[in-house]
Amino acid sequence: MALLNVNIDHVATVRQARKTDEPDPVWAAVQCELAGASGITVHLRQDRRHINDRDVHLLKETVASKLNLEMCLSESIVKIAEKIRPDQITLVPENRAELTTEGGLDCAKFQKRLTAITKRMHKKGILVSTFVLPDEKQIAATAEAGCDAIELHTGMYANATKDKQIEKRLNELRDGRDMAMAAGLIVHAGHGLTYRNIGPVARIEGLCEFNIGHSIISRAVLTGIGPAVEEMKMLIETPL
Ligand code: PXP
Questions:
Q1: What's the mean pLDDT in 159-163?
Q2: Which has more confidence, 240 or 123?
Q3: What is the CA radius of gyration of the chain?
Q4: What total of structural domains would you count in the chain?
Q5: Long-range contact list for 108-114, CB < 8 A, 24+ apart?
Q6: Is residue 100 predicted with pLDDT exceeding 80?
Q7: How confident is the model at residue 118 (pLDDT cuts 50, 70, 90)?
Q8: pLDDT given for residue 4 in this prediction
Q9: Is 70 labeled as catalytic in the residue annotation?
Q10: Which whole number is the average pLDDT over 125-152?
């Protein structure tokens, strides 16, 4: 059964709206874990627009489940990951102007760097995942770099509106899963997943971990973070 990691970046985004000390993502992480989340995901961006160094340090001390640090390939961020030692890193592309992560990481283009980073992380006991489109070249490059896992980008599925399009995107995810598993990679998925669209993805066998942020934190504003996490977990565990 797939596990749920809650991405709590948006909690820090609200805090940064006033550059104050509330809401605290560390408190949010505790609430997510109490509600049954299997992991906490945060993206330490180079511009520190939401999650900052203090958050990651404290989350490393307080998260009892799994801390998954999303990050780009930049050396300064890699050094921070080596020092903090999250349980897992997920390597993502990062553009300063984007609202959220756009597209997958070009693992083929950056394969040398990816291989070097993976070796360094493995020395510290950190699992390495890459955020990729369900594309053969990218999946092969991830496996060749020695990574442990891939996170399949579900954004195109989430954006599809017509039944035919949705089925096409689901098939791409299934094919991506098959390629990744054949290459010995663990398969995660995430981006754009909501209470409405999680069902068909949750039914894809072999997906081990979902990273979901926006939809859960949006619902949490209205229902509280505990019920929001519990409901998503239920949808993942007992899909229609
Ligand atoms: N996975 C990755 C790699 C991401 O960059 C993000 C967004 O931070 C997510 C999952 C979560 O996406 P969403 O906020 O749309 O659930």
A1: 97
A2: 123
A3: 17
A4: 1
A5: 108/137, 108/138, 108/140, 108/141, 110/73, 111/141, 111/144, 111/145, 113/73, 114/73, 114/141, 114/142, 114/145, 114/147
A6: no
A7: very high
A8: 98
A9: yes
A10: 97
The CATH number of residue 153's host domain is 3.20.20.70
Q: How far is the CA of 133 from the centre of ligand 1 (A)?
A: 13
Identify the pLDDT of residue 97. 74
Choosing from 10, 43, 50, 153, which is the catalytic residue? 43
For residue 56, what are the domain limits?
A: 3-237
Task: Answer whether 16 contacts ligand 1 (Cβ < 6 A).
Answer: no
> What pLDDT is stored for residue 213 in this prediction?
98
Residue 240 has pLDDT above 70, yes or no: no
pLDDT band at residue 239 under the 50/70/90 scheme: low
Is 151 a pocket residue for ligand 1 (Cβ < 6 Å)? yes
CA of 211 to the centre of ligand 1 (A): 6
Q: How far is CA 106 from CA 94, 118, 128, 130, 138, in A?
A: 11, 15, 15, 9, 7
The answer, yes or no, to whether residue 99 has pLDDT greater than 80, is: no
Q: Which of 10, 50, 153, 191 is catalytic?
A: 191
Known active-site residue 43: yes
- Distance from Cα 112 to the centre of ligand 1, integer Å: 25
Question: Using a 6 Å cutoff on CB, does residue 214 contact ligand 1?
Answer: yes
Query: 20, exposed or middle or buried, with CB in 10 Å at 0-12, 13-18, 19+?
Result: exposed
Q: Decide: 209 in ligand 1 pocket, CB within 6 A.
A: no
Ligand 1 pocket check for 90: Cβ under 6 Å? yes
Cα 162 to averaged position of ligand 1 atoms, centre (Å): 23
